[in-house]
Amino acid sequence: MAAKVNVSLDADLAIEVMLLSGATNPQDAVELIVRDFLARGRRTDARTGEAADAHRTAQPTRTVEEG
How many other C-beta atoms are found inside a 10 Å radius of the C-beta of residue 18? Predict the structure, then answer.
């Protein structure tokens, strides 16, 4: 069983989320929006790599040669 969290939202925000998601109640609407947000983040990480991978694509810094 998953843990549950109660969150209070402004009524206008809840209605807007319901309209965007097509859900018939605020609980389902917020859950759908959050799940979609998380899935998009995972797809983006899979495509572009994570922050820890940034060293592989970074341009080497040039140092001024002395002499």
Answer: 19
d(CA 15, CA 30): 10
Contact in structure between 7 and 30 (CB atoms under 8 Å): yes
Cα gap 40→30, rounded to integer Å:
15
Say how far apart CA 31 and CA 42 lie, in whole Å.
Answer: 17
Beta-carbon contacts of residue 9 (< 8 Å; ≥ 6 apart): 17, 26, 30
Question: pLDDT tens, position by position, for the chain (67 residues)?
Answer: 788 888 898 999 999 999 988 999 998 998 888 888 888 877 666 666 666 666 666 666 667 777 6
Q: Is 19 helix (H, G, I), strand (E, B) or coil?
A: helix
